[in-house]
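Ticket #4471: structure export looks truncated?
Reporter: QA, pipeline team
Priority: medium

Steps to reproduce: submit the single chain below to the structure queue and open the exported record.
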Amino acid sequence: MTARPRRQALGVRLGRAAVGRRWKLGPARNSITRERDVPAAMRDGVVLLADHFAPAVPGPCPTVLMRCPYGRGLLYSAMAWPYAERGYHVLLQSTRGTFGSGGTFRPYTDEAADGQDTVAWLREQDWFDGRLATVGSSYLGFVQWALTLEPPPELRAMVVQVAPHDLGFTAFGHGSFELYNRLAWSAQMAHQQEQRSALRQIWGTIRRDNRIAPMLARLPLSSTGEGIGGNEAPWYPEWLAHPDLSDAYWDARRATAALERVTVPVLLIGGFHDQFYEQTLLQYQALRRRDVPVGLTVGPWTHLTVDVGLAARETLAWLDAFVAGDGPSPRSQPVRVWTGGTAQWSERAEWPPAGVAPVTWYLQPGGVLATDGGPSAGAGLSAGASDFAYDPLDPTPSVGGRTTSYSAGSRDNRDLEARGDVLTFSTGPLAGPAEIAGAPSLHLYLRCDGASADIFARLCDVSESGESRNVTDQVIRLGQAELPPGKACAVTMSLPDVSHVFRPGHRIRLQISGGAFPRYARNLGTAADQVTGTQTAVVHYSILHGQPQPSVLTLPVLVTQTQPAADAQG
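Actual output as written to the record:
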C-alpha cells in the first residue's frame, strides 16, 4: 500500500536547509512533501518503486525525473530536495531489480523501455503538467540517453553529469579492458544493501579497493570476477566474453543514437579526471554539430569528487530557463572549463576554443622533448631509439588518472617515472607560459617484439621542485596486425582534451609505458587470448627518433599565449 504524502520532520528540514547553504543555492522557495514507494507498472507487469517529492505550491509545476540503481536513501534523496524546494515535482525511481523495484537488474539493458513506461505512467498523474526534465549523474545520466532514443514530446531539457552513453566503450573503448573501473562498479552493485546508511555506503566504497585487490591480480582475466560475493554480478563475465565492440551484444547497452535524436537543451557536466570524460566530449561534439542548445562544464574532478554544489546551481539555472520558464540560456558563454595551472575557470564560446595552433615536439634520445625549431622541421635532430621492456608479471602500475578510486585524479608521478619500464621525455624549464586547449596527439614510430602490446601515454606538468603531475593520458592496444615482426610500425593516438597552463619554469613531460595496471588489464604480450589466456611474455619496445621516422608529440597551444622555449633539455 502506498504511503500518503507527508511533510518531512523538523530534523530533515533543517538538514535540507544546511545542504542548501552549503551548496550556495539560496533559500528554499517552498516546503515539500515526500511520498515513498510509489508504484509504477512497466509493460511486462514489473512494478518499479519511486519516491515523489512534491512542492507545496499552488498551481502546476514541472517534473524532474531521476532514475537510479543506488537507492532512495539520504545520498540520492539529497540530490532531489533542491529541485523540489524550488518548484519542481521530483520522481526519484529505483531502476529494475534495485531497492524494492521488481524484476532483475541487468545493467543498461532495460533502461530505454522502462524509461518510456515511466513517462507513460507520469502522463496519468494529476500532478504532472506536461513539462518534463531529466537530471542525474553516472548511471542516472545513461538512463537519460536511453530514454531519448525515442525522445518523449514532454521533454523540455536534460542535465547529464559524468555519464556514459555507451557501455561497450567504457569497457573496451581503446582495446584494453578497463579492469579497475568495471570490476569496482560490479563489486559495488553486488554489495548494495537497502538498509545501509549514507556513512556506511561511503565507508564501503573506501574499503572496496582492499576487497577487490586480490581479484584484480588474477590470471586469466576471465577469473577476476569470481567470488565477488554479495548478490554476485552475472553481467561482469558477459562483458569479458564480448571484447569486440561490433558484437551485437553491446547494441542493447549503448544509446549512441540518442545523440542524433535529442533536440532539447542539454547541459553536460564532466571532469577532466572522470572515467566517462571522453564520452562527455563526444556528447558535446555530437549535439553542437547538430546545433542543439548545449552547455558544457568541465572541472578538475574525478568521478567521485564533482563539486555537487556547483552542479546543483548550474542545474537549477538550466531548469529554470528551459523548463519552468522559456528564457534564454542562463550562461554568458556555452562552455565553462577549469584551466589547470591557473586554478581559474575559463568561459568559451565553443570547445576546443578558437585561436589554437599545433606546436610539435620531437622525442629525442636521452629523454628530451625538442621543439620543431630545428632545420627542415626536425631533419637536423638526432636519430636513435629509446628502449624499455614490459613484463606482464610485474605490470607497470597505474597512478591516479580517470578511475573511481579515491586515489584518482592528478597525482605525483615521480615514483612511477623512476621505474625502468617507463620512458619520460621532457622539455627544459619554459621561458613563458604555454596554455594547452584541446586534444594532444602522439605519433610514434616503434619496434616491438610482442605478439600483442599496449601503449600507455601520459602528459605531465613538472614543477620547479620536480613534482610530476598527470594532466591527461590514453592507452591503445596493438595486435599482430599492427606489429609486423622485425619492422617499425607507426602508431597515432589522441589524448583526451585538456585545458591547462604550463607556467614559466615548469617542464612539459611525456610518459610512455606498456600499460597502467590495474586501471587497464595487463597485456599478456603473447598470441594467447587476452581474456582467457595465462601465457605471458616480456615485451621489448624501441621508440624511434629523428629522420626518416620521427616520433612527435603535438600540443594544441593557444596562439595568444607566449610560446614555450625551444630545444631546452630536461
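Status: closed, not a bug. The export was complete when the record was re-opened. Leaving a note from the reviewer for reference: The chain has three domains: 6-175+243-348, 176-242, 356-558.
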